[in-house]
Amino acid sequence: MMASISSMPSQIELYEQIGTLSSRMAAAAQAHDWDTLIELERSVAGLRDTLMTADEGFPGTADVERKRVLIQQILRDDAEVRRHTEPWMEHVRQFLGTANRRQQVQRAYGAV
Predict the structure, then answer these.
(1) DSSP-assigned states of every residue in 60-71
(2) Domains and CATH numbers, the chain
(3) How far apart are alpha carbons 12 and 58 in whole angstroms?
(4) Sorting pLDDT into bands at 50, 70 and 90, what band is 112?
(5) Dmax of the chain from CA atoms?
(6) Rounded to an integer, what distance in angstroms lies between the CA atom of residue 111 and that of residue 6?
(7) Among 29, 50, 47, which residue's Cα sits nearest to residue 38?
(8) How far apart are CA 109 and CA 112, in angstroms?
(9) pTM listed for this prediction
(10) What's residue 2's pLDDT?
(11) Mean pLDDT of the chain
């Protein structure tokens, strides 16, 4: 049996789910649990895609305020994730850059 459109989560419910996952992402980043962080990000991406197709209708004032609070929380969590991932990503970039330069030097001078 196909699910009816009314069984789709509302935008607020989707934002709440994204907010819950974004908090878990921040915790995973703080713990340097990159595998969990990647898994959670994939879940958030799926919810974000669903959110783009969700029909909001005419939100009430309470829904607009709740959405604002949720978006602010999601943005704070995103900043926390970036605070932990950006230094790690820079380290990886430097490592890969060094390895690439080493290969270029080896090729240029015929080293094996």
Answers:
(1) -HHHHHHHHHHH
(2) 10-109 (1.20.58.380)
(3) 12
(4) low
(5) 70
(6) 66
(7) 29
(8) 9
(9) 0.72
(10) 47
(11) 85
